């Protein structure tokens, strides 16, 4: 069937979905062959679109044979109708073109004109992936709603080790299936509660005790959960970034506000993601008016706040509810990681996500993060990447725990 025919894949009920598969110049292009095979096997009408760089690694005819159709050769291939566009592997060069709207190949033309779901599977050297320019481009694309899969951490083509491996074809195919499955994604029908930002505990009418959390990680989790079909409620504690569309946002500026809302809503949620930096202590006797400045010292007594995560874990255990409770631990170094392990057991959590705030290249005030996920079955590192990509990796694990994902 020629690329000019755009009608054969569309039927009313149980119609075949059309997937455009873009392949760019990367040694990981060979993995795209398996992705095409899996998509065809799943019943999709697959249209391969290769860049000249991709054809230096795998011939276009290989993809056409696996897809059982030709690549686009129409006068206006970028107007080809489709349900989803996936680019796998996505090189750093094409990633930059997509972020900035360049259209100098058939693939980038198609991407610029395409209005459906966009799935991206980056593949490049670790240092290229971690470069601020690449991460800024990733953030631009994620902000426009692109779905990132990977990259994975492991051995790279050059013999180095790090983040940059293209995700496995099975994982990419599963994400595509989630987006096209009609059920709204792997978290469809699930209620997800996310906390984000940093609480502020009043000292007087104008001053407060706070922290540096921007809320980016929690907002990324809320956006990713919503994109996967979940009914998301976001408890927002003084966010420095906008709340994502499609979620129900509740303002919770103080630890007491967050505790009240989380304890009211958490027991009914299937997943609770406690990403907010909730103050451990608050002023015991805040003033209702502004304290005037004078020459005297100001002694402030701090009292502990309620441990919301521990209370939610206790209630879930007592009620026998099989929800997924994810705690976040922002701490320093190896001792901080050890404390995260201790918290997992002490607070009845399902997972604990540790990020090392002693580093100045991730975490607070950064678009990037690198975390260690701790669970009873072990722990592993989600390598340095954009926070939306970290959120996707965390929610992959959550979906697996719920029985609806690849992990």
Structural class: alpha/beta
Look at the structure and give the mean pLDDT.
Answer: 85
User: Largest sheet, described in full?
Assistant: 8 strands, mixed
- Characterize the overall form: elongated
What is the CATH fold-level name of the largest domain?
Rossmann fold
Helix content bin: 25-40%
Distance between the termini: 36 Å
In the residues, how many domains can be counted?
2
Question: What topology, given as strand order, has the largest sheet?
Answer: 12-11-8-13-16-17-18-19
Oligomer: single chain
Regions with little confidence, pLDDT below 50 for 5+ residues: 1-14
Descriptive account of the structure:
With 407 residues, the chain is of the alpha/beta class. It has two domains: 18-180, Flavin prenyltransferase-like (Rossmann fold, 3-Layer(aba) Sandwich), CATH 3.40.50; 191-401, Rossmann fold (3-Layer(aba) Sandwich). 32% of the residues lie in helices and 24% in strands. It has twelve helices and 19 strands. It has helices at residues 29-41, 60-67, 92-100, 106-113, 126-130, 132-143, 169-180, 216-227, 255-265, 308-319, 333-346, 387-401, and strands spanning 18-23, 45-50, 84-90, 118-122, 147-148, 152-155, 161-165, 191-197, 201-202, 208-209, 231-237, 248-251, 271-274, 281-283, 302-304, 324-331, 351-356, 368-375, 378-386. Strands 12-11-8-13-16-17-18-19 form an eight-stranded mixed sheet, with helices on both faces. Helix 1 (29-41) packs parallel to helix 2 (60-67), helix 1 packs across helix 7 and helix 8 (216-227) packs across helix 12 (387-401). The longest helix has 15 residues, at 387-401. The radius of gyration is 23 Å and the shape is elongated.
């Amino acid at each position: 069937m020629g690329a000019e025919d755009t009608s054969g894949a569309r039927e009313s009920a149980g119609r075949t979905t059309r997937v455009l598969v873009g392949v760019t110049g990367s040694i990981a292009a060979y993995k795209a062959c398996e992705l095409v095979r899996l998509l065809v096997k799943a019943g999709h009408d697959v249209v391969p679109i290769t860049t000249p760089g991709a054809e230096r690694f795998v011939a276009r005819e290989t993809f056409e044979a696996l897809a059982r159709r030709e690549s686009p050769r129409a006068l206006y291939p970028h107007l080809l109708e489709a349900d989803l566009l996936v680019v796998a592997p996505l090189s750093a060069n094409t990633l930059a073109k997509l972020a900035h709207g360049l259209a100098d190949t058939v693939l980038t033309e198609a991407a610029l004109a395409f209005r459906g779901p966009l799935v991206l599977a980056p593949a490049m050297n670790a240092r290229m992936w971690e470069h601020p320019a690449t991460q800024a481009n990733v953030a631009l694309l994620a902000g426009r709603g692109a779905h990132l899969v990977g990259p994975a951490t492991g051995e790279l083509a050059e013999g180095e080790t790090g983040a940059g491996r293209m995700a496995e074809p099975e994982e990419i195919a599963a994400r595509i299936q989630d987006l096209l499955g009609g059920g709204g994604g792997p978290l469809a029908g699930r209620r997800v509660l996310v906390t984000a930002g940093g609480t502020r505990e009043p000292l007087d009418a104008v001053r407060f005790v706070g922290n540096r959390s921007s809320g980016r990680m929690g907002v990324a989790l809320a956006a990713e959960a919503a994109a996967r079909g979940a009914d998301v409620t976001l408890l927002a504690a003084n966010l420095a970034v906008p709340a994502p569309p499609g979620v129900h946002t509740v303002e919770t500026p103080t630890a007491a506000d967050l505790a009240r809302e989380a304890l009211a809503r958490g027991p009914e949620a299937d997943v609770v993601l406690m990403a907010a930096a909730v103050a451990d202590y608050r002023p015991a006797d805040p003033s209702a008016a502004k304290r005037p400045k004078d020459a005297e010292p100001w002694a402030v007594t701090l009292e502990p706040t309620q441990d919301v995560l521990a209370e939610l874990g206790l209630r879930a255990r007592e009620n026998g509810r099989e929800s997924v409770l994810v705690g976040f631990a922002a701490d320093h170094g190896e001792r901080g990681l050890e404390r995260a392990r201790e918290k997992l057991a002490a607070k009845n959590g399902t997972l604990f996500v540790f990020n090392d705030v002693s580093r100045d290249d991730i975490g607070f005030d950064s678009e990037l993060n690198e975390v260690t996920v701790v669970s009873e079955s072990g722990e592993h590192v989600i390598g340095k990447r954009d926070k939306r990509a970290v959120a996707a990796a965390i929610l992959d694990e959550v979906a697996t725990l719920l029985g609806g994902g690849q992990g």
